[in-house]
Write a structure and sequence with these properties.
homodimer, alpha/beta, eight-stranded mixed sheet, eight-stranded parallel β-barrel, 31 strands
Chain lengths: ~900, ~900
C-alpha cells in the first residue's frame, strides 16, 4: 500500500500534474463532497471550477473573502452517476459547512432575528457564459426578510433583496421566465404611477413579493419554498442540472469542451455594497487592459450592488477617487492588487465589495486585454522578473498582433456605417471616392483615394496601386480586388452587395444614402464596414516590445516562416517583418501589368505554337527582371516561384461584357469593329469554362502549352545566373508546378522543364542550383504524395484550393451565398477558408506529409495558403511536421508568434507525458 | 527431405498452383535453360511464355508441330542478373538442342548442302504486341542459300528467303531501320523497271543481298555475320534485350505487367508454305469468332507465306475450299481443331502451314471473339459439358455485353463520317435532322428524328423525348443532353465542336459539308461518330443465351445490382434487365417537364418563403404521382430518391442568352418587355455562380430553402402511404440527402425532414418505414464517414462528383479541353469518369466505407455514379465491400456479370491463398 501511495504522489512531488494528484489526494484524505474555500487552492480548477479555485486561493493566502465553500465537480458527476440524485452524504456535509459559516458570521441560516444569507453560483473548469446560474440572497423568506430589515435598519433594502431573490430563484430553480416577474413589476409601477424601480416603497416591494408568490403558485402549482434549507437544496440541484441543459451541451460541443467535467457550486456568505455611504462595489484590473500601463485600472460605485455597475444607470468613478472617500480601503485594495498580480504572475481582473467600510474580494481571474496591452504586459513582466520569456511569448495571442500591424480605426471615434461587405484585406483607410481607375491613378499621388468599383479586373491594377483602399460591390474573398489588396497590404472591402454604383452619374448609393465621387469615405477591411466621412485612423507601429517578443518567439519556434510575395516591394516588407524566405511568388500578376497584358493577350489569341512563342519571347525579359528584383531583395534566402496558374481567360475581357458589346455593335451596324470583337468573343467562348476553378489551369496549362512554362523557367534560371555572375548573389530558386493531382502530370512537366533549366545552366557555364517541387492543392495529390515525392523536391500546401476541393465549396460562391448561413446556424464553427479544417483538410494534409516524407526524407514541406498566417492553422502545421509556413507579409509576425506557441505547447505536452 | 518434398508437391496434387510447382520442378529436375517443345506443357506459361507453352502443349499431345525448343524466361532473367550476359551453359545447351533438331529433320545447321533453317521468336507470359521480335530463315548465308536453292529447286525462293532474313536480322538484331533496306529494294526495282517484288528475278534478289551486305557494313561498320551460330547467338541476345527496351517498359507500365517476368525465346525448324501448289498457309478459329457458331472458321492461301495472308495482296479462300484441293489435309486439320478445343476447353485461334502436302501447326491460342460470340460460345460449351457455369460466366467480358444492349451500326456497312464528338450515350440511330425541339416533338411520333442543337436545356425535354437520338455541338459528358440521353437509353453524341449550327438557315455545316434540316444522318453514341445518310442498324436482343448466362451470374455474385431511374418507364426497363431496386432517382428531371417548369421558375423567382411555399404546394401532387408511379413499378424493391440537387439557376434561362436579349430590347427601345426581362436577368445574376459545381446545390439548397426538401419528403411519404393503403404495396423509401461534406449539414437537414416524415406517417395512421441516408460525393465526407454514419442509414457513392472533386477536374471542362490530351500522352491510362480511379477516388471510398461501417454495422453502402455499370469499377466496389452497385438500366446486365466476375475471382484468390 505504501508502494502504491508513493507512486501516486510521485508526479506531484515533481511539481507537474499536480492537479489530478491533488484532486485524488483530496478525495482520499477527506472523502468529502465539499471544501471550505481555505481548504482549496488555485491549482484545483478541475475539482472546484475556475471561480471556486480563485476564491479558495484568495482565502488560502489570507485575503478578505466572505466565507464560503465549494461543492465539488466530483459531487456533480456523482449526481449524474447515481441517476441524477445527490450523493447520500452531500446535504449532511452542506449543513455542516453552513454551520461553519454561521460560526464565522455570528448569523444563523433561517434565523428570523439575524439571518445568514448566501449566494449560490455555478462554476465549471472552463468559463461557460450563458449557463452560469446565480442565485443571490438565498435564505430570505417572509420571516427572515424582517430580520434583515431590522439588522440593516433598511426595510426597503430588505424587501428589494427579497424580491430579487424570488425572481432569481423563480427563474433559475423553478424555470419560470423572467417576463412573468417583470410583468408584475411593470404592472405595480403602473398602479403606483411611477417609472423607476427606485421610486417604489418598501410597502410596494412587500406587495410585489406577494404577487411573485401568486405567480409561482399559478405557474408551477406549488408554493414558493420558504424553508432556506429547501431553497438551498433545490438551488444546488438546479445548478447540477444546468450542466446538462441543451444550451450547455451545445456550447460544449461547439467549443470542444469535454462533457464529463461537471460543474462546481460555490456557496458564499452574502456581503452588501448597498448598505449605505460606507458601502460600495467595483471592478478593477491590476494593469490597464487597453494599454498595458502598469497601474491599477478600475471603477467603483458607493452604496451600490454589482448589478448597478453593470446596468449603467449611474456612472462609476475611477478607482483613484476612492482615495478621497476611503483612503485606507484604497490602500488595502492596492496592496491586494499588487499581491494578487505577484501571486498569479499575471494581470488580474478583480471584483470587490465594501460593506460598511470593510473590503471583501469576490472574484479574481486572469484579466482580458487588448493586443497592444498583452504585448506590453508580457514584456514588462519579463523585465520585472515575474515571468519567463517562454511564458511571455505564450501570454500573447498571436491573432492579437494582427491589429497592431495594420492601421485601425480609432475605437473612440464616432462612425456612420452605411454598408457592410466582406472583410477582404485588413486595415482601415479614408479617402475620396473615385470610381474610375484611370482617375485614381492620376490623382492618387496627390490625394488619398478609395477606389470604388462593381468589381476589379487586371486592367484596373494601376488604379489599385494608386489607391489607399478598395471597395467593390461584387466578388468574394478570392476576387481580384481581394487578392491584390491583400498582397499589397491595403484595406479592402469587397462584395458590399447593398451598394449600387452608377458609373454614369458618378455616384454610388446604398439605401437612401447617395455618395458622390469626391466625397470622403472610410473603409475598414478588418470588419467590412463602409463609413461615410473620415474616421481617425491609428497607424501601426512595431514597438520595441513587439520586436523583443518576436525575437524571443524566434528562439522558441522550430518551423520556418516565409512570406507570399509577388513584387520586390512585398519582399522588402516581408523581410522587415521577419520572413525567412518567399513561400509563394504568384507569377500571374506579373502578366497583368499595363505594358505586358497586351502581349499576354496576343499570346492567348495566337492560333499556333510559333505565334505563341513569339509573344512569349517578348515577355521573357520582363519576367527575368521581375525575378532578379525579387531575388535581390531576398539575398540568399529561399524563393519559391509558382509557374503560371490561372485559366487563360482571366487575361481576356469577360464573356458577359463582350456579349453585350457585340450585340450592341451588331444592332448599330458597326460592321468593322463588330468583326474585330467577334474574333475575341470566339476565343473567349472557346476558353470559357463551366467551373474554371476545376478547369484548364495550373500544370494542365503547361501540359497543353509547354512553351509558357518553358519561358518562365528560362527567365528564372537566367535571373539566377545573371545575379550570380554580376552581383555575386547565390540563390537556389525553387520552381513550383501547381495543381498536380497525378504523378504523371508532374513527370511530364518536370521532364520538359528540367531540360530547359539544364540548358540555361550549361550555356551560362557556371553552377546554379535549383529545385523543382509542387503545390499540393488537389485531394488526390495527398493520396499519392508518396509517388509525387519521387519527383518533387518540395511540397507546398495550397490550402485555399485544397479547402475548396475537399469541401466541394467554390469560395467565391460559398462566401456570398451560403457560408454565412452555415456560420450563423453553427453548421460550421469557423470559416474553413480562414481557419484550417483539421478534421477534413488537415487529415489529408497529414496523410500527404507522412507519405511524402516516407519517400523522400528531406522533402521540404510548407504551406502557402492563407491559413499560413492564421494561428490555429499554424499550430496544426507544426503538429503534422511541416517545415515552414508562408503567409502575406503583414501576417509574418503573427505566424512567427503562432509557431513559437506551437513549439512551446508541444514541449510542455511532452514534458507532461514524461 | 521426403517431408519437404511432400509439402512442395501438395498444391500440385490438388490441381491448384500447378504453375509455380511445375516451374520449380523443371528447374530442379534439369537445371537447364532450354526445353524441347515436347518437354513442356500448357501450364508452363511462366517459364515458356504464352507462345512456347502453346507449342509445347501441341507437341506433347502429338500434334504435328515443327520441332523446336524454348529458351526459358529464367534464362532471360539470369541474363539480366549476370549484368546482361548469357548464363555460361546457355549456348552449349542451345547447341545440343540444335543437334536434336538436326537429327529429327536430317538437315544440318550451316550445312551448305542441306541447311537447317530456324525461326527465332520472342514470347513472354503476357502478349506484348509491338515487342514480339521475330527472325525467320535464320541459318542462311551465301553458302547455305545455295543449298536451299538446290534442295527446293527454286533459286528465286531461296534468295527471296535470304534477303528477307537479312532484312529482319538487320532490323531486329543490328538495329537498322527498315527504310534502309526498303530504299535498296525500291532502287533495284527502279533500275529493273518493275513495280512488284515478284517481278524481280533470282539474280536480282541475289544482287540485292549484296546491296544489303553493303548497307550493313556502312551503317554498323561491321560485316553481316555469316556464321549461323553467331547469327543465332546474336538473335537470342537481341530478344533478351528487347524485354527491357523503352517501349516494352512503357507498355508494361501502362498495362501493369510486372517487370520481372522476362521473355522466352522460341527456336523452331522453318517450314515453308510457299514451296509450290501443295504448300500453303492459313489461320482458323475453331468456332465463328463473330457469331459463336459451332463451326471452324478460317482462311488459307496456297503457295504463300504468313506475310502474304496479312499483306492482303491476294484474297484468301475460306477454309472449306481446302476440301477440294487437299481433302485429307482438311480432314486432319478439322480433327485437330476439334481436339484442340476439347483439350483447351475454349475456342482456339490456330496458325498452320502446309509444306509439300504436310500439315504443321505453328501456334494455338485462345481465340478473340465478339460479345455475342462470347456469350453463345460460353453457354454452348456448358451445354456440351466442356466447361462449368462458373467458367462460362468468367469467359464473357462484362463490357462485351454492352454492345448487345444497344442498337449498333452494322459493322459491314459503309459509312461517311463527317464529324466526331463525345460518345455520350451508347447506341446508334438514324433519322432526319431536326434543329427545333418543338418540331421534333411534333413529327417525332411519325418519323425518326435526330435532334441537333448547339446544346440542350430543360426547355428542350419534349424534343429529346420524341427524338431517336441527339447531337450537340457543345457540352461534355455531363451536359444536359448527355445525362438525359443516357437516362433514356438513347444514343447521344455531344460536344461535336467541328459542327456549326445555323439556326436561321436551318442547316448545320462541318468543314465543307452542309446538312439541311430534313436530311438523314446517323449518330453512333458508342464511338461519337456523326455519319451522313442512313447506316443499317442492328437491334439488340436479350437472347436466351444471355438470359442463361446472367441467371448463372446472379447465383455467383454477392453484390446487389440496382438501376438509376427517374421515370416509371426507366424503372420498368431496369426490372426487365434484372435490377433489384433503384439506387438513384434524380428528382430534378421531374421539375423540368413541360407543365411543371413554369411553376418551378415561379418558386425560384419568389422573393419570400410564403411565396415559395405556394408554388411548391402546386408541385406536391405532381411529385407524389411521380413517386407512386415509380414505387408501383418496383413493388417492394428498394427505391432511393435523391432530394433536389442542381443549382436553381439551371431551371432559369441562361445568363448569356438573357444578356443578349436584354441588350437587344434596350437598343430597340422595347421598354415594357425590357423591364420584364430585366427582372429575370437580375435573379439569374443573383443566382449566377463562378463554379456552380461547387456552389449552392445539394443539401446546401435544403439548408437555405428547407421548404423545397420538405415538399419532396412529404410527397415521398404520401406516395408510400397511399400505395400501402390503396394498393397494398409496401415500400420502404430511402430518402437521400445529396452533397453532404459536414456532419452538421446532415444533422440539420435530417432533423427538419424527420419531423416532416413523422408528421405524414402520424396523420396517415398506418405504419410506413423509411430511411434517411446520404450521397457521398465530397472528399470530406469520406474522411468523416464515421460521424456521418451516426445519422445516415445508408451511403451511396456519387463517384461522378467525387471524381471531379478528388481530381479537381470539372468534367464538362476537362473532357473538351484537356482530358483527351492526358489520354493521348498516357498521363492517364483511362478516363477516370468512365473507369473508377482506384488509387485516388478508390482509396477515399475505401476509407469512407470502413469508417462508415465501423460506426453502423448494417450501414447500406452502394454506388450510383456512372462507374456503377463499368466492369473494373464494379470489381473494385466488390473488393472494398459495397453492398450494391447502381447504374443506368441498360448497363444492369453488365453490372450483374461484372459483380459475378468479382465474386468468382475473389473465391479463386481465396482458394489459392489457402
Amino acid at each position: 500500500m505504501a508502494q502504491v501511495r508513493h507512486r501516486m504522489t510521485k508526479p506531484a512531488a515533481r511539481g507537474r500534474s499536480a492537479k489530478p494528484a491533488g484532486k485524488n489526494a483530496v478525495r482520499k484524505r477527506s472523502g468529502r463532497w465539499t471544501l471550505l474555500f481555505e481548504e482549496g487552492n488555485a491549482k484545483m480548477r478541475d475539482l472546484l471550477g475556475g471561480k471556486g479555485a480563485g476564491l479558495a486561493e484568495m482565502s488560502r493566502i489570507g485575503l478578505p473573502v466572505p466565507p464560503g465553500f465549494t461543492i465539488t465537480t466530483e459531487a456533480c458527476l456523482e449526481y449524474y452517476r447515481q441517476g441524477r440524485r445527490f450523493p447520500p452524504a452531500l446535504m449532511d456535509e452542506v449543513r455542516k459547512r453552513i454551520r461553519v459559516l454561521e460560526e464565522r458570521t455570528g448569523k444563523r441560516f433561517g434565523d428570523p432575528a439575524n439571518p445568514l444569507l448566501v449566494s449560490v453560483r455555478s462554476g465549471a473548469k472552463f468559463s461557460m457564459p450563458g449557463m452560469m446560474d446565480t442565485v443571490l440572497n438565498l435564505g430570505l423568506n417572509s420571516r427572515t426578510v424582517e430580520g434583515l430589515a431590522k439588522a440593516t435598519g433598511d426595510r426597503r433594502f430588505a424587501y428589494d433583496s427579497y424580491r430579487r431573490f424570488m425572481q432569481m430563484f423563480g427563474n433559475v430553480v423553478l424555470g419560470l421566465k423572467h417576463e412573468h416577474f417583470e410583468e408584475m413589476l411593470a404592472a405595480l409601477k403602473g398602479r403606483r404611477g411611477v417609472t423607476l424601480d427606485t421610486e417604489l416603497t418598501a410597502k410596494d416591494l412587500e406587495d410585489l413579493t406577494e404577487e411573485y408568490r401568486k405567480v409561482v403558485r399559478s405557474r408551477t402549482g406549488k408554493e414558493f419554498p420558504d424553508d432556506p434549507w429547501q431553497q438551498l437544496e433545490m438551488t444546488i440541484h438546479a445548478v447540477f442540472e444546468s450542466w446538462n441543459n441543451p444550451r450547455a451541451i451545445t456550447y460544449r460541443n461547439f467549443n470542444k469542451i469535454p462533457h464529463d467535467l461537471g460543474t462546481a457550486v460555490n456557496v458564499q456568505v452574502m456581503v452588501f455594497g448597498n448598505m449605505g455611504p460606507t458601502s460600495g462595489t467595483g471592478v478593477a484590473f491590476t494593469r490597464n487592459p487597453a494599454t498595458g500601463e502598469r497601474r491599477v485600472y478600475g471603477e467603483y460605485l458607493l452604496n451600490a450592488q454589482g448589478e448597478d455597475v453593470v446596468a449603467g444607470t449611474r456612472t462609476p468613478k475611477p478607482i483613484e477617487d476612492l482615495g478621497r472617500e476611503m483612503p485606507a480601503v484604497l490602500r488595502q485594495f492596492m496592496d491586494i492588487c499588487a499581491l494578487l498580480e505577484k501571486h498569479y504572475r499575471d494581470v488580474q481582473d478583480v471584483e470587490f465589495t465594501i460593506e460598511n467600510g470593510k473590503l471583501y474580494l469576490l472574484q479574481t481571474r486572469s484579466g482580458k486585454r487588448t493586443g497592444p496591452a498583452a504585448v506590453k504586459i508580457a514584456v514588462d513582466m519579463v523585465g520585472e522578473g515575474l515571468i519567463s520569456k517562454e511564458e511571455a511569448v505564450l501570454r500573447v495571442e498571436p491573432a492579437s498582433l494582427e491589429q497592431l500591424l495594420h492601421p485601425r480605426l480609432d475605437p473612440q471615434a464616432r462612425k456612420h456605417v452605411i454598408a457592410k461587405g466582406l472583410a477582404a484585406s485588413p486595415g482601415a483607410a479614408s479617402g475620396i471616392v473615385v470610381l474610375d481607375p484611370d482617375e485614381a491613378a492620376k490623382i492618387g499621388t496627390e490625394r488619398k483615394v478609395i477606389l470604388v468599383r462593381p468589381e476589379t479586373n487586371p486592367d484596373d491594377i494601376h488604379g489599385l496601386v494608386a489607391a489607399k483602399g478598395v471597395l467593390t460591390t461584387r466578388g468574394g474573398m478570392t476576387s481580384h480586388a481581394a487578392i491584390v489588396a491583400r498582397g499589397m497590404g491595403k484595406p479592402a472591402v469587397v462584395g458590399a452587395e447593398s451598394i449600387s454604383v452608377d458609373e454614369k452619374a458618378r455616384t454610388f448609393s446604398v439605401n437612401s444614402v447617395v455618395v458622390r465621387e469626391g466625397d470622403v469615405i472610410t473603409i475598414d477591411g478588418s470588419t467590412g464596414e463602409v463609413i461615410k466621412g473620415e474616421v481617425p485612423v491609428i497607424e501601426p507601429k512595431l514597438t520595441g516590445e513587439i520586436q523583443d517578443l518576436l525575437a524571443w518567439a524566434d528562439k522558441f519556434r522550430t518551423m520556418g516562416v516565409r512570406a507570399n510575395a509577388d513584387y520586390p516591394r512585398d519582399a522588402r516588407t516581408a523581410r522587415e517583418f521577419g520572413a525567412e524566405g518567399i513561400g509563394l511568388c504568384r507569377t500571374e500578376h506579373m502578366f497583368m501589368e499595363e505594358e505586358r497584358l497586351p502581349i499576354m493577350q496576343q499570346m492567348i489569341m495566337a492560333a499556333t505554337e510559333p505565334e505563341r512563342r513569339k509573344a512569349l519571347d517578348r515577355l521573357l525579359d520582363f519576367q527575368k527582371e521581375d525575378f532578379k528584383g525579387l531575388f535581390r531583395e531576398m539575398g540568399s534566402l529561399p524563393v519559391i516561384i509558382r509557374l503560371l496558374d490561372p485559366p487563360l481567360h482571366e487575361f481576356l475581357p469577360r464573356l458577359e461584357d463582350l456579349l453585350v458589346e457585340v450585340t450592341e455593335l451588331r444592332l448599330r451596324g458597326e460592321t468593322e469593329k463588330l468583326r474585330e470583337r467577334e474574333v475575341v468573343l470566339r476565343r473567349v467562348r472557346a476558353l470559357h469554362e463551366f467551373n474554371p476553378m476545376l478547369g484548364l489551369r495550373g500544370c494542365r496549362l503547361g501540359i497543353l502549352y509547354p512553351e509558357i512554362n518553358e519561358m518562365q523557367v528560362r527567365a528564372i534560371l537566367l535571373a539566377a545566373v545573371e545575379l550570380k555572375k554580376q552581383e555575386r548573389i547565390d540563390i537556389v530558386p525553387e520552381i513550383m508546378i501547381p495543381l498536380i493531382g497525378l504523378t504523371n502530370e508532374l513527370r511530364v512537366v518536370h521532364q520538359q522543364l528540367e531540360q530547359v533549366a539544364q540548358a540555361v545552366v550549361k550555356e551560362a557555364g557556371i553552377k546554379v542550383r535549383y529545385m523543382f517541387g509542387t503545390m499540393i492543392e488537389i485531394p488526390r495529390a495527398c493520396v499519392v504524395a508518396d509517388e509525387i515525392a519521387e519527383i518533387a523536391e518540395f511540397f507546398s500546401y495550397g490550402t485555399n484550393d485544397l479547402t475548396q476541393t475537399i469541401f466541394g465549396f467554390s469560395r467565391d460562391d460559398a462566401q456570398g451565398k451560403f457560408l454565412h448561413v452555415y456560420l450563423e446556424k453553427g453548421i460550421l464553427k469557423e470559416d474553413p477558408f480562414q481557419v484550417l479544417d483539421r478534421v477534413g483538410v488537415g487529415e489529408l494534409m497529414k496523410m500527404g506529409t507522412q507519405r511524402g516524407k516516407k519517400t523522400r526524407k528531406d522533402l521540404e514541406v510548407g504551406i502557402c495558403g492563407e491559413h499560413g498566417g492564421e494561428p490555429s492553422s499554424v499550430e496544426y502545421c507544426h503538429e503534422i511536421g511541416l517545415d515552414y509556413v508562408s503567409c502575406s507579409p503583414y501576417r509574418v509576425p503573427v505566424a512567427r508568434l503562432a509557431a513559437a506557441h506551437a513549439a512551446l505547447k508541444e514541449k510542455t505536452a511532452v514534458t507532461k507525458d514524461v
